[in-house]
Amino acid sequence: MYRCRQIVSQCSSTLKSNLGHGRQRYAGESTTKRFGSDHGYNPPAIKPATLSEMPTPKGSWATAHSRQQAKYNMHLAAGLGFTAFTFFVGYQSGCFYLNYGPDIMQTKVSVLTHEQVREQAAAAAAAAAQAVVAEEPVSEPEAAAPAVVEVIEEVVPVVVAEEAAVEEVAPAVVEEAVPVAVVEEVAPVAVVEEVAPVAIIEEVAPVAEAAPVVVEEVAPAAVPETVDAVPEPSGNESGPSDQSEAVVAAAAASVAVVGDFPEHVPYLLIGAGTSSFAAFRAIKSRDPKAKVLVIGEESHLPYMRPPLSKELWFSEDPEVPNKLRFKQWNGKERSLFFEQDEFYCNPVELSGKENGGVAVVRGHRVVKLDIVGRKAELDDGRTITYDKCLIATGGKPKSLPSLSSAPQDVQEHVTLFRNIDDFRRLESVSRQVKSITIIGGGFLGSELACALGRRAKSNGLEVLQVFPEDGNMGRVLPKYLSQWTTEKVKAEGVQVLPKTQVEGATLEDNKVVLTLNNGEKIKTDHVVVAVGLDANTDLAVASGLEIDSNFGGYRVNAELEARSNVWVAGDAACFYDIKLGRRRVEHHDHAVVSGRLAGENMTGAGKPYWHQSMFWSDLGPNVGYEAIGIVDSSLETMAVFAKSTAADTPKAVVEATGEGVRSETENAAPEQSSLKESSKLHAPIEGEDYGKGIVFYTRNDVVVGMVLWNVFNKIPVARRILKEGLTTDKLAEAAKLFDLHE
Question: Residues in domain FAD/NAD(P)-binding (predicted)?
């Protein structure tokens, strides 16, 4: 213990001594002297370094720089080499894929006509017949095994042309005088092109596996003209069994088809309208190698419907119904069809397309969907399986009970206007008769009335329009604006009869006599019915799909999905709008928007319906409007109007923008405009000229819809107002965004 205390004492004294020396150093006393006198320690003298002592580089600075750059370049080369090696290994192992093929969206695919397909099939059959080696006929057919004749449908699925479907084929005739050729081995016969040679199986080995059929003489059934007849072999030609083997060999590498389309497709679109067109474009944009099959009831490729009641009527060319081309108000000509024949591929060749494609089967209807089995059944009994399916069947035109129950001779003078065939019929009738009556005052009825009224000014045609509302488009526009619109329709040469309904129809002297609810009778040569649409939900009951009880149509969610792997778009969809609630819309722009959304969701996008589609209507070239949201005359409305100019017409806007369809120009419109002169909201004034203006539709003091009356290319502004849920106390400021006083 004493030793430890002594050591601590010495350390303490040393520390105090050092601290004392430090204080004295700062006071100016020499540290060296103090350390030397007390402890006998003399620190070495420190000599500052000079440039002479620095290391001298070997060689010139240029040599040293080159040596350093060479080292860096070697590092760069090694890195690039390693990157290239990694890329090569990844490519060879299949980690990623480079598509060197052509862009399928820009590649035109040649489509064979039915005549060319038949010629190729006939040439293939002739070549197969020449390659057959004749077999020695059986000398004693009675000693051979009992002949078994199978129904042709079970051996060769005969391909039927679109114009006529052959459901059953009569069994072939076996004559006693003709030697029967023996077939030792029978392979399943695949179909080649559209028409395959009919093979008759005379004997099947083993016989126990074949279903016995009694052979007797049967009169041959008549074969439709669309199926080429199979010639019977002569005495020096090979038998049908040889032809069967040749057909099997020729079709061994062909794709399995059911009639005129493949038996399985990744994407099946039911309906060949605007929604299907928008859907398969969206599918191809996200899945360039997609194989899409479209099945439609009409005999036409997908086309746009709005010109059927607008631009097509403004041409004096008598060939318009055949050409189906029209001039837009900007002078440009375009086709009614979205794409021409070259864009689509042959349905039979769809499965074999390496880069995918789009095929359209026309003249057929899907009658049932097996949701669990992913199978669609057609009206002729054939089936096709799919991975994803879209229902875009559109709507069916409504009729009136008084016309539906009328005699057949009356209905022959009635047109339910909807498609190309209806347009062609009405266009032809309008050039032959003296009077036409249009029933309906909505969009379609008013557009047709104005179109026919303009023609009436040149050929003396009498055009009448009958509807129960107070004015044209009375279910959409406020009463004052609807009545003002009626005056504009009358100025186009139409005799308008509002607040009237048709209660009966008879035929007298080859003219239709319409009895109105006010007791009056109208004699007319032809009647056009345009009273709206019913959603085409024929698939619902057979397929187990839900129909909305309030709005009609297939009930779908916000992603437009009705069941697993089944989507619905267009007029037939009753969807949930995340902003405005459940709705069903029957307009062209909605068909485009919903079809595009459904196509994206079919490829896994999972997007909800939030984009507010718009619609437009033109009553001739001088009056038109665009609308968005819920527009219903039963809602409360607030409006602001201004005096129009010569530039505030549909024709002037199209000529100024250079676009033929206004829905295409909305994307180029500005998001907002500057705040200029204010437009005051006020009640309608008797006799006021509603040249151009904005109508706000409100529900619970919130804007839910808007009509832009002779105000064009401002839909993005209106869409933003709906998205923000603007209230009525801010409408005066919102009206400034539309620049009505420019």
Answer: 268-594
Spans of the chain below 50 pLDDT: 1-3, 8, 15, 19-37, 100-107, 109, 133-258, 652, 660-680, 682-683, 686
Residue 46 pLDDT: 76
Residue 133 tokens read as: 């080696």
Name the β-bridge partners of 294: 269, 360
Question: Exposed (0-12), middle (13-18) or buried (19+): which is 456, by Cβ within 10 Å?
Answer: buried
* Bond into 266 cis (ω within 30): no
* Nearest Cα residue to 618 out of 277, 273, 308: 308
Residues 6+ apart with CB under 8 A from 103: 288
SS3 label, residue 663: helix
Question: Residue 491: which residues within 8 A CB-CB, separation 6 or more?
Answer: none
Q: How many CB atoms lie within 10 A of CB 254?
A: 15
pLDDT at 45 (0 to 100): 74
Q: 335-340: long-range contacts (C-beta < 8 A, 24 or more apart)?
A: 336/303, 336/304, 336/307, 336/308, 336/312, 336/420, 337/300, 337/301, 337/302, 337/303, 338/274, 338/277, 338/301, 338/302, 338/303, 338/304, 339/277, 339/301, 339/302, 340/301
Residue 341 and residue 369 share a domain: yes
**CB burial of residue 179 (10 Å; 0-12, 13-18, 19+):** middle
Check residue 66 and give its pLDDT: 85
- Residues 243, 275, single domain; the answer is no
pLDDT tens, 34-69?
444 455 667 777 777 776 676 666 677 788 788 889
C-alpha dihedral sign at 32, 34, 35, 36: positive
The Cβ-side half-sphere exposure at 248, using a 13 Å CA radius, reads 14
CB atoms within 10 A of CB 402: 16
What total of structural domains would you count in the chain?
5
The answer on 273 and 220 residing in a single domain is no
pLDDT at position 97, please?
55
| 222 and 184 belong to one structural domain | yes
Q: Which residue has the tokens 């896994």?
A: 604
CA 199 to CA 230: how far, in whole Å?
Answer: 9
The predicted pLDDT at position 668 comes to 37
Number of Cβ within 10 Å of residue 689's Cβ equals: 11
Is 489 in contact with 477 (CB distance < 8 Å)? no
Domain of residue 31 covers 2-38
Encoded tokens for 159: 């391909």
Q: Are residues 545 and 693 in the same domain?
A: no
In single-letter form, the type of residue at position 324 comes to L
Are 356 and 438 found together in one domain?
no
In a domain, 454, yes or no: yes
